[in-house]
Amino acid sequence: MKDALLATLIEEYSAVEAFASILVLETKALTALSPLELLPPIVEKKTELIGMLARLENERDAQLAELGFPAGWPGMELAASTDARLAAQWSLLQKAADRARRFNTSNGELIRVRMDYNQRALKALQVAVPQKTGFYGPDGRIPARPTA
C-alpha cells in the first residue's frame, strides 16, 4: 500500500510542477502589453490542473486512511516518518508546492497592480473629458440640450 501512496505522491509532484510551469507562463502573459489573448488557454490549463490536484489529494488521503494515518499534512508527516522513500518524495512535493505558491502570490500582485493602473487610467479619462453639450455620451448619442 505504501507503493500506491508513493505513486500518488510522484503523480502529485508532477502535477504541481506542471502547475508551477503554467504560473510562469501566466507571469509572462500578465507582463505582456496585451495579455488578453494569452490568458484564456492558461486559465483553462490552470483549472484542469487544479482539478487534478484535488483528485490526487483525495486519493492520497484515502491511501493514508487505509494505512491508518490521518488525512492531510499531519498524516503525510507521520507516513513519511516511517518510510524514507515517502519522506523524500513528500519533501520534493512540499518544495514544489512552495514554489507554486510563491508564483501564484506574485501573479496575484501583478493582477492587482494592473487593475489599479486600469482604474486610475479610467478615472483620468473621466476627468479629462468634461461633459459638455455637443459631445456624445457613452451610448454614442449627443445628449439633449437643457431647455431654459
Fold and architecture overview:
The chain is elongated. It is mostly helical and 148 residues long. Helix content is 75%, strand content 0%. It has a single domain, classed as Up-down Bundle (Methane Monooxygenase Hydroxylase, Chain G, domain 1), CATH 1.20.58.300. α1 (2-30) packs antiparallel against α2, α1 (2-30) packs parallel to α4 (84-128) and α3 (72-80) packs antiparallel against α4. The model has no long low-confidence stretch (mean pLDDT 90). The longest helix is centred in the C-terminal third of the chain and has 45 residues, at 84-128. This is Flagellar biosynthesis protein FlgN. Required for the efficient initiation of filament assembly. Belongs to the FlgN family. It comes from Paraburkholderia lacunae.
Which short descriptors sum up this protein?
mainly alpha; 4 helices; 148 residues; Methane Monooxygenase Hydroxylase, Chain G, domain 1
